[in-house]
Write a structure and sequence with these properties.
Blueprint (H helix, E strand, L loop, with lengths): L1 H10 L13 H20 L3 H19 L4 E6 L14 H10 L6 E4 L5 E8 L5 H4 L5 H10 L13 E9 L4
Helix pairs in contact: 2-3, 3-6
The structure holds heme C.
The site of heme C (HEC) has 28 residues, from helix 2, helix 3, strand 1, helix 5 and strand 4.
Length: 173
């Protein structure tokens, strides 16, 4: 089974890391998600307060480092922790619509400036509650108060929309 899997992986196409080869925004997001998860896991191994520091420093750096040329990506929310993640004008209404939907799904859009966009909902799961849930440990509350005095990203329950991943790129001419 393991050999079969290895063979399948070897056969799978090399990801297209340029914006003009047939765009696959979900695939562009994959290393961002994967590295965020890894950073969170490593941070959490040393306690949630430490993980906050890791997230704070690494989340924006990861987004910048994994985006192919000409592609921008990030996370946003209707209830922000980091105001630097505030939604662009085009993204705000998408988040509002997602909030009305019981099972929001990813969408692709054409933006007014000629770029294309891809948005994916991010739902809250159990792992998120230590830092985004209703009851936070004193260490987490203290760290959040220190770094994010305007934090609005607590009080979420499992299954709530926590925010979105977004990607924009310029389509090939
Ligand atoms: C260890 C604490 C911690 C955990 C656990 C955690 N987060 Fe966060 N989260 C943060 C911090 C810190 C930020 C701000 C990072 C930044 O500056 O971009 C953040 C930001 C975000 C953002 C960006 C929007 C915003 O409000 O700035 C989203 C979306 C998000 N988290 C979703 C999640 C989800 C989904 C989970 C569970 C899988 C999760 N987080 C688990 C600490 C955490």
């Amino acid at each position: 089974m393991r050999i079969l899997l290895a063979a399948l992986l070897a056969l799978s196409p090399v990801p297209a890391f340029t914006a003009d080869a047939s765009p696959d925004p979900a695939q562009w997001l994959a290393p961002f998600k994967q590295q965020l998860k890894q950073a969170l896991k490593e941070g959490l191994a040393q306690g949630p307060a430490h993980a906050i520091d890791v997230c704070r420093i690494q989340a924006p750096a990861i987004a910048a480092s994994v985006a192919p040329d000409g592609v921008r990506m990030g996370r946003s929310s209707h209830r922000l922790r980091n105001t630097a993640n505030a939604p662009a004008d085009w993204l705000q209404p998408v988040i509002e619509e997602y909030l009305q939907e019981s099972e929001p799904v990813p969408r692709q859009m054409d933006l007014a400036d000629g770029r294309k966009a891809w948005v994916e909902p991010i739902m809250t799961d159990g792992v998120c509650l230590a830092c985004h849930g209703e009851k936070l440990s004193p260490a987490v509350s203290d760290a959040l108060a220190r770094y994010y005095p305007e934090d609005q990203a607590t009080g979420f329950k499992v299954g709530d929309l926590r925010g979105v991943f977004w990607v924009t790129w310029k389509p090939a001419q």
